Amino acid sequence: MGYPIAGHLARAGHAVTVYNRTAQKAERWVQAHGGSAAPTPAAAARGADVVFACVGNDDDLRSVAAGPDGALATLRHGAVFVDHTTASARVARELAAAFAARGAQFVDAPVSGGEAGAINGTLTVMCGAEESAFEQVRPVIEAYARSVRRIGPSGAGQLAKMVNQLCIAGIVQGLAEGIHFGERAGLDMTLVLDVLGKGAAQSWQMDNRGGTMLEGRFDFGFAVEWMRKDLGLCLEEARSNGAALPVAALVDQFYAEVQALGGGRWDTSSLVARLRAARSRN
């Protein structure tokens, strides 16, 4: 995600310095886009007005943001750190307080749209931050996003992303069951999805994943193991706010079964593979 995002920033005329744990990736980006590479997050952040991060989880984020070689060590007064990781609302609030204590600001800004959205510059970005921080970074983020909205204070962006993942989990499971049912009923599911895609059942998942689900092709897209991480964040937050998430909890276990089939890196639409596998065993 970070590679194409940084490319859009460079094409928009920003002076960009990149860091990646794999130095060769950063050097490859420099060769393609110009700018420069840094050996640590702290070195990349030195003198910057805005710093962007997109990593794997809470611990990774704490490391690049506030670890010994993290951006906070060199971030100038008044600068803003924008985090595109899907992480917990708790770590967003924690880091917002740490950055504020050093005279900087932190924006939790998870994204929706996947790698294709990052490449095409069409991401949806949901932000949690002070209004002043959001307005400072919004024009910059618009270089690679079709929608940038402030949802509320620190943590609100991450909570909105949890809503996004909860909705997707239910939609993909419903689509998987519909496809499986139609196949068992002997329907021409290519025709059925084409018809349904023009009615009330239409969704992004149907439009973009229906065909590949029919083909049994899952070697792309958003990995099951990452979706399980995200659903884990949702379920953890629900335990503290009292929300009931019965479908999410069930779908999380279905994804565990997909992992057991060897599909940890398959796209999330592979829920249909679980249904087919279960049928073949019966």
Annotation keywords:
single chain; 282 residues; mainly alpha; Rossmann fold; N-(1-d-carboxylethyl)-l-norvaline Dehydrogenase, domain 2; 2 domains; three-stranded parallel β-sheet; three-stranded mixed β-sheet; 13 helices; 8 strands; 56% helix; elongated
Task: Describe the protein's topology.
Blueprint: H1 2-11, E1 17-18, H2 23-33, E2 36-37, H3 41-45, E3 50-53, H4 58-66, E4 80-83, H5 89-101, E5 105-108, E6 111-112, H6 114-120, E7 123-128, H7 131-141, E8 145-152, H8 156-184, H9 189-196, H10 204-215, H11 224-241, H12 246-260, H13 271-281
Parallel strand pairs: 1-2, 3-4, 4-5, 7-8
Antiparallel strand pairs: 6-7
Helix pairs in contact: 1-6, 8-10, 8-11, 8-12, 8-13, 11-12
Can you give the mean pLDDT? 97
Order of helices and strands: HEHEHEHEHEEHEHEHHHHHH
Task: Give the second-level CATH assignment, the architecture of the largest domain.
Answer: 3-Layer(aba) Sandwich
- What is the CATH first-level class name of the largest domain? Alpha Beta
Computed Rg:
20 Å
Spatial order of strands in the largest sheet: 3-4-5
Please name the CATH topology of the largest domain. Rossmann fold
Percentage of residues in helical conformation? 55-70%
Describe the biggest sheet?
A: 3 strands, parallel
- Structural class call reads mainly alpha
Distance from N terminus to C terminus (CA atoms, Å) equals 41 Å
